[in-house]
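INTERNAL AUDIT FORM
Audit reference: QA-55
Scope: verify that the stored structure record matches its stored sequence.
Auditor: D.O.
Record contents follow.
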Amino acid sequence: MATESRISIHGQWSNRLAFILAATGSAVGLGNIWKFPYITGMNGGGAFVLVYLLCILCIGIPILMAESMLGRRGRQSPINTMAALAAEEGGAKVWAWLGWMGVLAGFLILSYYSVIAGWALAYVFRAASGLFTGLDAESINNIFGSFVSDPERTLAWHSIFMVMTMVVVARGVQHGLEKSVRYMMPALFIVLIVLVLYAATTGYFSYGLRFMFATDFSRLSWNAVLMAMGHAFFTLSLGMGAIMMYGSYLPAHTSIAKTSLIIAGADTVVALMAGLAIFPIVFANGLEPASGAGLIFKTLPIAFGQMDAGILIGTLFFILLVFAAWTSSMSLIEPAVAWLVENHGMSRISASVWLGVLSWLLGIASILSFNHWEQYKFWGKTFFDLLDYLTANVMLPLGGLLIAIFAGWVVGVKSSYDEMDNGKRGYALWLFLVRYVTPVAVILIFLNVSGLLDWL
């Protein structure tokens, strides 16, 4: 199946930079700015960062390359790509279910991701209005508590964000996805740099550096290692069909290895810069860095309300959060949209609307889990927490594991070598990692967390 002679029916990125911006936009999201700082604070700071970086190098990048390679070779939605490549390489038909799992994971993530993104969108206006100025921790907590306990308000912001996402996706590859990331990604980096520069003026920048890079392995657990691995998958958009879909729009002679390294590097830099922007502000105001998910919506607004230029810095921060969420949300729904267009002859507009409505409806359950349904627990977790855990810590790593196995063992060496085009040594290293290191690492972490390794 020669990719030189094939182009996806959905279109193609105009150049390599467009793919890098789009894939980086998919990778850089709430996971970098909302989730990474607080899970770092909860799991030993620098020790967790080190494990996370190892997961990126040994697991994330090889699977990122594998998923991009499969996408470009198949040139279809993940479901159809996996079915076509399995048939081409003599694999079992059941591999098509890997495509289904990825598309489902992206759809589920978008349903609750849009809820959190809606919070960020609402907080842009709260910060810009000066609502946090001079308020203490109790008042800030009351604002957040009142907001999330009101399903009508949170539903409104969830709805606005979902419409924003669907409008871009409906416009197609070049006119929608590519055009949006060409503006939003540079803007995101500029805002983040401004925030880091401000953090450097607080007098507590060195505290933030020490917190993030001083290693304390005594605070690491196997569950923290699973969290680091799950976050590596989550932040690189692995195992959810997004990278495979974006890879299908990649021009034939673009180097997958080089672009994957750039994407993973940019994503990691954003995550670290987010920590460097947040932790000095947290320490400068005597706040708790390991305060969980509330770090973004309850802890930082206290700092924004007390600091000079707090209105500007707070507004910029939540704008950054919205841009990051927006670029990621588009990639979460794109695989499902592409499948509907390919298999049911729907227009992109119709597919985007139908899937957006379905994801929006499922998001209502996540909204209610913060108020009216808060008492309903599934294995000790609210509906929102269960979806987050199931997708980030189970579905994405499992999807990545199966992608590694398929790319390393089912796809023929000639097929993958032709697509990779990264030299014999580079290809040999990738093949070794994706065949042996990545699967073994994922399986061992799963066994440790489940307790099966001790039992065996």
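Auditor finding: record pair retrieved intact. The CA atoms of residues 208 and 276 lie 6 Å apart.
Action required: none
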